[in-house]
User: Fold this.
Amino acid sequence: MNTRRFLAASLIGAVIMIPAAGCASGGGGTALTAVMSRPEEPDITVAAIPAVDLAGLYIAQDRGLFARQGLHVTIEQIPSSQSVITDQLQGKFDISAGSYVAYIAAEAAGARFRILAEASTLSPDTRALVVTGNSPITTIAELAGKKIGVNGVNSIGTLLISALLSANGVSPAKVRFVPAQGGFPPMPRELRDGAWNAAFLAEPYITAAGEQYGEEVLADLDQGSVLSLPIDGYVATRAWAQKYPKTAAAFARAIEQGQRIANSDASAVQATMARNDSLPPSVTAAMALPRYPVGPVVEANIQRVARAMYQSGILGRAYATDAEQRALVGSMAGPAS
Assistant:
């Protein structure tokens, strides 16, 4: 018993001496804190759609904000978040960034995700239904029986358009949603070439469609029941977030810094989109910007998406209770541990 007490006292003394020695040498405490908060996995790959909604991510990359957190981030562009979920569940990507719709649908199917940070919130002119300049379609009612190009099925596009159709007395079942294989970048050209009667676009591609092809907005999708709806987030699997909590926290800190810049400096968003999407100044200067949330993930925000998914039929009747009582999004928006 005496030996055990002596060992315990020695260990406690050693722990006390470490920070004390650090203080005596000047800056040692800071060094110890840095070691303790160092990411477990510094090299991470992020799959992301190339849209202005994720400006916080691209700003963090361009300005070295990830590097300051001890991270080396590789960004791989994808057509939609739905297209990458299987790969992420298989460990091919550490984090993905895109529409909450795909992640909530996957969660309902048994996957387990964690939202590390919110990316964007819908604002005027940032998501729109677009037609060609000479289209005979001039009203929402005239979309019945038509093909609409989207960047992914059962996505934020189908959700927002379904809400618009329903509000205008058109059943979403009366239109045909057609996924574009390449996502947003080629969609304005494909619309011009007659692939669909209308297309769902996000900025900066709404502006590009008008500037490059003379296409016109049929309807702004920021309205009605989906007004100011949360759109995109930065998401990891629950297993990854639990395995690498310091890495997840470091990523979220860098994203928040990028978000704050994006909210306060439109020119920073324009510059980063020009670099990462090779867009001309005529597009980046005119594009509308979403809102970039900062701070902890707000569960009530994400719950709005789940409720809208149920109301539009993306989530079936079996998920009525989950959609209303936050069962699906509660764990997704919770702490990483």
The radius of gyration is 23 Å. The beta strands are 43-48, 72-77, 95-99, 113-121, 127-131, 147-150, 176-179, 198-202, 216-220, 230-237.
